[in-house]
């Protein structure tokens, strides 16, 4: 009897383990829908924090599988959850528009996202603030003072109530106006999107004159992009642009054709393409080509604020009214924009590894034009246009990266880069320039900080010239070797600076910038020479074409940044040489927070320089760090990019360190399964014998 009970016990444990295994295996299988989406970069630029529109309809999404309000929608890339915002969601019409923020997209490369839904218990995480560079849904009962400033003339007013902002010219006075403009400014390659409608409250059906655009200074208006509409139904539309003293005016280019009191989105794109500066206008996501305009003479490229404006006419006719605004946001924009393609079939519910493919691929990974037979890993791919009215969008495919290991050349930055990335070199002639140039090109390095070993700058002329021919800028780094505590430090420093400035005046390949490497002694700048005279001398003699920058040491009194800021174009913040190794985003952000805060406070800019001697395993991990820093500082106008302190050390790192062996979801489960399977088989045999 005891033997039989023991046998039954073993069999029970055997089946219990099997059931537990099946349960664990299915814990990740709760999502009803799971679709892969391929994003393809088309402009030839590295994109960081780029917002991509995802249009859903009955052909690519089953709305019945999602929550009624879309609150269960989730987007991810690899193990990273992505921020997104639902602009429109209409399950009855089976249409939706979702903006997804992509952390990084390599020039001419792809990234695969995973879209999931089906969790009925999920809460909404859609967030415009987390997705865009600037966002206001006008919640509350007053204008958000940390986002906007407002101005008015005559009887103009700005009101916020019930989630709507009214920019209004409500009285019958000549030149009444009201205006709101952002506190933040934005670089070129931006789009200003506003959901708005025109409302006339006076007797003149022309209603108010409305403007939407970019502007640098409200008082002087030296640089501006002004999109103006007027008359009933906004039938007259024109541009007015200015770049310093040059001004362009159009007359009547198109017609909004939207009845008053009806909502629509007005979108102004300001961007660079093929070395030309352009502007374009979109209504409800559709480009109006009649408004396309390109001019480097009349379109500026300096940072500008966004603004909204309403005014009466100069004849004081009864054309009162307002621009009602539901929401406004600023997103990144390049031409041509990335394209979106859905896998036509639902994928298995697993998180794919994040894959980004670049332009240097084998013939097997060439661009595949959309056709019904195109496949990705055996799954047919259907093309989905970025705009609902577009129909033919090319789709670039990608294979598993491991399959291309033998055909794709090694790149120093295999996954990520940022718009501005630099690296420090010493003795460049130790390297073959052709190979060095290829490394930098594949790494998307565009800035070289060149350490001056000795006072003879002429030894680097040929190198600087070759770098310029490859489109790279070169900054001379001065005073790394000087003992700042010596009595003659200032005189020798001025002499070294004079030698560089003399070289720049006479050379065929002058340096693009001079970086003054500052030091401290015993964590106190008071023990070192005063660097201010050096910056003053550099600024007086360098000229407008040469930038001056300051490399800040650890322990530097950040309050002195204010004294130096008027004398330099940007700062380099050294995130190394501190108490602990800095290899993570959080550690670096915390370490440089004070310096970056001071730089931000004086409206200057900073590059964060990291050291690869501080415990990085491979180039892959450094590029992950670059991407996360770029993402963290996306909305920070003070952040210019990231630089690496030593090319030699970086070059020696492997692209990707050998990964650890994969661990099972339940440690030891496979071993236990084998053990209990054997015991179970033994028990069954015993039962048969008995």
From TrEMBL:
GO function term, MF aspect, one: hydrolase activity, acting on glycosyl bonds
Task: Check the record and name the Gene3D superfamilies matching this protein.
Answer: Glycosidases
Keyword rRNA-binding recorded: no
Family matches, as InterPro entries: DUF2341, GH18_Domain-Containing
Keywords, ordered alphabetically: Glycosidase, Hydrolase
Q: Where is the composition biased (Polar residues)?
A: 354-379, 398-409
Q: Where is the composition biased (Low complexity)?
A: 380-395
Q: Where is this region: Disordered?
A: 346-409
Q: What residue stretches are annotated with the DUF2341 domain?
A: 69-150
Mind telling me what this protein is named?
A: DUF2341 domain-containing protein
From the broadest rank down, the organism's phylogenetic lineage runs: Archaea, Methanobacteriati, Methanobacteriota, Stenosarchaea group, Methanomicrobia
């Amino acid at each position: 009897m005891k033997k039989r009970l023991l046998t039954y016990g073993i069999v029970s444990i055997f089946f219990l383990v099997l059931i537990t295994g099946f349960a664990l295996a299915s814990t990740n299988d709760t999502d009803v829908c799971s679709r892969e989406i391929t994003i393809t970069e088309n402009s030839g630029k590295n994109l960081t924090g780029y917002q991509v529109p995802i249009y859903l309809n009955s052909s690519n999404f089953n709305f019945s599988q999602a929550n009624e309000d879309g609150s269960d929608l989730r987007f991810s890339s690899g193990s990273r959850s992505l921020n997104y915002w639902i602009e429109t969601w209409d399950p009855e019409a089976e249409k939706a528009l979702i903006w997804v923020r992509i952390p990084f997209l390599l020039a001419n490369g792809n990234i695969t996202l995973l879209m999931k839904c089906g969790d009925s218990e999920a809460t909404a995480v859609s967030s415009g603030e987390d997705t865009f560079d600037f966002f206001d849904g006008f919640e509350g009962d007053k204008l958000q003072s940390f986002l906007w400033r407002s101005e008015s003339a005559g009887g103009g007013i700005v009101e916020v109530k019930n989630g709507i902002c009214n920019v209004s010219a409500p009285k019958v006075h000549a030149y009444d106006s009201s205006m709101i403009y952002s506190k933040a400014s934005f670089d070129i390659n931006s789009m200003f999107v506003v959901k708005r409608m025109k409302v006339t409250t006076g007797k003149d059906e022309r209603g108010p004159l409305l403007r939407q655009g970019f502007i640098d200074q409200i008082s002087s208006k030296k640089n501006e992009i002004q999109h103006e509409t007027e008359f009933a139904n906004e039938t007259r539309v024109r541009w007015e642009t200015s770049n310093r003293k040059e001004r362009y005016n159009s007359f009547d280019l198109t017609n909004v054709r939207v009845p008053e009191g009806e909502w629509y989105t007005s979108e102004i794109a300001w961007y660079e393409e093929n070395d030309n500066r352009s502007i374009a206008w979109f209504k409800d996501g559709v480009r109006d080509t009649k408004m396309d305009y390109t001019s480097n003479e009349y379109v500026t490229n300096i940072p500008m604020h966004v603004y909204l404006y309403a005014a009466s006419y100069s004849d004081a006719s009864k054309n009162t009214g307002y621009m009602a605004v539901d929401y406004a946001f600023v997103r990144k924009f390049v031409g041509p924009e990335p394209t979106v393609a859905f896998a036509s079939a639902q994928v298995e519910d697993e998180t794919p590894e994040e894959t980004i493919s670049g332009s240097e691929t084998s013939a097997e990974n060439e661009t595949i034009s959309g056709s019904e037979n195109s496949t990705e890993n055996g799954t047919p791919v259907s093309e989905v246009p970025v705009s609902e009215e577009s129909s033919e969008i090319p789709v670039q495919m990608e294979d598993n990266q491991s399959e291309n290991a033998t055909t794709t050349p090694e790149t120093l930055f295999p996954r990520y880069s940022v718009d501005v990335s630099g690296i420090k070199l010493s003795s460049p002639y130790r390297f073959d320039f052709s190979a060095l140039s290829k490394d930098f090109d594949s790494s998307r390095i565009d800035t070289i900080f060149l350490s001056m070993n000795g006072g003879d700058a002429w030894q680097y002329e040929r190198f600087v010239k070759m770098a310029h021919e490859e489109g790279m800028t070169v900054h001379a780094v001065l005073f790394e070797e000087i003992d700042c505590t010596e009595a003659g430090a200032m005189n020798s420093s001025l002499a070294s600076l004079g030698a560089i400035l003399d070289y720049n005046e006479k050379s065929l390949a002058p340096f693009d910038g001079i970086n003054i490497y500052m030091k401290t002694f015993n964590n106190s700048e008071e023990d070192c020479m005063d660097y201010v005279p050096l910056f003053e001398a550099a600024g007086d003699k360098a000229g407008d074409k040469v930038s001056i920058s300051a490399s800040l040491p650890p322990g530097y009194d950040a309050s002195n940044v204010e004294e130096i800021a008027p004398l330099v174009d940007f700062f380099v913040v050294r995130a190394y040489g501190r108490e602990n190794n800095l290899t993570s985003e959080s550690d670096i952000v915390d370490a440089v927070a004070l310096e970056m805060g001071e730089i931000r406070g004086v409206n200057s800019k900073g590059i964060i320089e990291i050291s690869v001697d501080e415990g990085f395993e491979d180039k892959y991990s450094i590029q992950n760090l670059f991407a996360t820093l770029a993402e963290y500082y996306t909305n920070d106008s003070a952040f210019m990019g990231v630089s690496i302190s030593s090319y030699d050390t970086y070059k020696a790192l492997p692209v990707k360190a050998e990964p650890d062996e994969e661990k099972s979801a339940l440690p030891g489960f496979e071993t236990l399964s084998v053990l209990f399977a054997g015991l179970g088989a033994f028990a069954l045999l015993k039962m048969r014998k008995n």
